Amino acid sequence: MPCYRCGARQTDPVRGASPWQRGVRDESQVLVCPDCQRLHDLDLDSCATCGSRTLICRLGEVECRACGAVRTARAPETVRTATVAAPPGLAAEVEAALNRVLGRA
Protein backbone atom coordinates (compact mmCIF):
# COMPACT_ATOMS: atom_id res chain seq x y z
CA MET A 1 0.00 0.00 0.00
CA PRO A 2 1.51 3.37 -0.99
CA CYS A 3 1.59 6.57 1.06
CA TYR A 4 -1.82 8.18 0.69
CA ARG A 5 -0.34 11.68 0.23
CA CYS A 6 2.57 11.22 -2.18
CA GLY A 7 2.18 7.67 -3.50
CA ALA A 8 5.63 6.52 -2.31
CA ARG A 9 5.84 2.78 -1.77
CA GLN A 10 7.39 1.01 1.17
CA THR A 11 10.66 -0.79 0.63
CA ASP A 12 11.76 -3.95 2.39
CA PRO A 13 11.81 -3.12 6.10
CA VAL A 14 14.90 -3.27 8.25
CA ARG A 15 14.74 -4.77 11.71
CA GLY A 16 12.91 -2.74 14.29
CA ALA A 17 9.90 -0.49 14.20
CA SER A 18 8.71 0.75 10.83
CA PRO A 19 9.11 4.49 10.22
CA TRP A 20 5.78 4.45 8.34
CA GLN A 21 2.68 5.55 10.23
CA ARG A 22 -0.78 4.00 9.98
CA GLY A 23 -3.87 6.14 10.18
CA VAL A 24 -7.49 6.39 9.13
CA ARG A 25 -8.73 8.83 6.53
CA ASP A 26 -12.33 8.88 5.33
CA GLU A 27 -13.03 5.54 7.03
CA SER A 28 -10.12 3.78 5.27
CA GLN A 29 -6.81 2.55 6.65
CA VAL A 30 -3.92 4.50 5.10
CA LEU A 31 -0.14 4.60 5.39
CA VAL A 32 1.93 7.77 5.72
CA CYS A 33 5.59 7.76 4.65
CA PRO A 34 8.27 9.31 6.89
CA ASP A 35 8.64 12.34 4.58
CA CYS A 36 4.92 13.16 4.66
CA GLN A 37 4.80 12.66 8.44
CA ARG A 38 6.92 15.80 8.76
CA LEU A 39 4.01 17.83 7.34
CA HIS A 40 1.83 19.38 10.02
CA ASP A 41 -1.54 18.71 8.38
CA LEU A 42 -1.89 15.04 7.45
CA ASP A 43 -5.68 15.36 7.21
CA LEU A 44 -6.25 12.12 9.13
CA ASP A 45 -9.43 11.31 11.05
CA SER A 46 -9.29 11.79 14.82
CA CYS A 47 -10.96 10.06 17.74
CA ALA A 48 -14.23 11.70 18.81
CA THR A 49 -13.50 10.72 22.43
CA CYS A 50 -9.90 11.83 23.00
CA GLY A 51 -8.88 13.62 19.78
CA SER A 52 -5.98 11.26 19.04
CA ARG A 53 -5.12 10.46 15.43
CA THR A 54 -3.81 6.97 16.25
CA LEU A 55 -6.78 5.16 14.72
CA ILE A 56 -6.97 1.80 13.00
CA CYS A 57 -9.74 0.56 10.75
CA ARG A 58 -10.65 -3.12 10.58
CA LEU A 59 -13.72 -5.26 9.98
CA GLY A 60 -16.08 -2.32 9.69
CA GLU A 61 -14.89 -0.67 12.90
CA VAL A 62 -12.57 2.21 13.70
CA GLU A 63 -10.60 1.83 16.94
CA CYS A 64 -8.55 4.45 18.78
CA ARG A 65 -5.19 3.03 19.87
CA ALA A 66 -4.84 5.78 22.49
CA CYS A 67 -8.08 5.42 24.49
CA GLY A 68 -9.56 2.18 23.11
CA ALA A 69 -12.81 3.76 21.87
CA VAL A 70 -14.45 1.73 19.10
CA ARG A 71 -17.08 2.92 16.65
CA THR A 72 -18.73 1.48 13.58
CA ALA A 73 -17.28 2.73 10.31
CA ARG A 74 -19.64 4.49 7.93
CA ALA A 75 -21.04 2.45 5.05
CA PRO A 76 -18.78 2.46 1.97
CA GLU A 77 -21.32 4.28 -0.21
CA THR A 78 -21.14 7.32 2.10
CA VAL A 79 -17.35 7.47 2.03
CA ARG A 80 -15.64 9.57 -0.60
CA THR A 81 -12.74 7.75 -2.19
CA ALA A 82 -9.29 9.19 -2.66
CA THR A 83 -7.27 7.81 -5.52
CA VAL A 84 -3.53 7.90 -5.82
CA ALA A 85 -2.04 7.23 -9.22
CA ALA A 86 0.46 4.39 -9.37
CA PRO A 87 4.04 5.60 -9.65
CA PRO A 88 5.57 5.36 -13.13
CA GLY A 89 7.14 1.99 -13.83
CA LEU A 90 5.21 0.15 -11.13
CA ALA A 91 3.75 -2.39 -13.56
CA ALA A 92 7.22 -3.13 -14.96
CA GLU A 93 8.68 -3.57 -11.45
CA VAL A 94 5.89 -5.95 -10.46
CA GLU A 95 6.31 -7.96 -13.65
CA ALA A 96 10.08 -8.21 -13.11
CA ALA A 97 9.59 -9.33 -9.49
CA LEU A 98 7.08 -11.99 -10.55
CA ASN A 99 9.46 -13.21 -13.23
CA ARG A 100 12.27 -13.53 -10.67
CA VAL A 101 10.11 -15.37 -8.15
CA LEU A 102 8.52 -17.67 -10.70
CA GLY A 103 11.80 -18.35 -12.52
CA ARG A 104 10.64 -16.97 -15.86
CA ALA A 105 13.23 -15.88 -18.37
Describe this structure in words.
With 105 residues, the protein is α+β, with helices and mostly antiparallel strands. The protein has one domain. Helices cover 16% and strands 20% of the residues. The chain is built from two helices and five strands; from the N terminus they run ββαβββα. The chain has helices spanning 34-37, 90-102; strands spanning 21-25, 28-32, 55-58, 61-64, 70-72. The strands form two sheets. It has a three-stranded antiparallel β-sheet, with no helix packed on it. Strands 1-2 form a two-stranded antiparallel ribbon. A hairpin with a 2-residue loop joins β3 and β4 (61-64). The protein starts with 20 loop residues before the first strand and ends with a helix.
Produce the secondary structure layout.
Layout: E1 21-25, E2 28-32, H1 34-37, E3 55-58, E4 61-64, E5 70-72, H2 90-102
Antiparallel strand pairs: 1-2, 3-4, 4-5
Task: List the keywords.
105 residues, alpha+beta, two-stranded antiparallel sheet, 3-stranded antiparallel sheet, 2 helices, 5 strands
Brief write-up:
Helix content is 16%, strand content 20%. The chain is α+β, with helices and mostly antiparallel strands.
Count of separate structural domains: 1
Low-confidence segments, ≥5 residues, pLDDT <50? none
What is the terminal separation in angstroms? Answer: 28 Å
Shape: elongated
Our estimate of the beta-strand percent is: 15-25%
Q: What is the radius of gyration?
A: 17 Å
Number of strands: 5
* Average pLDDT taken over every residue: 83
Tally of alpha and pi helices: 2
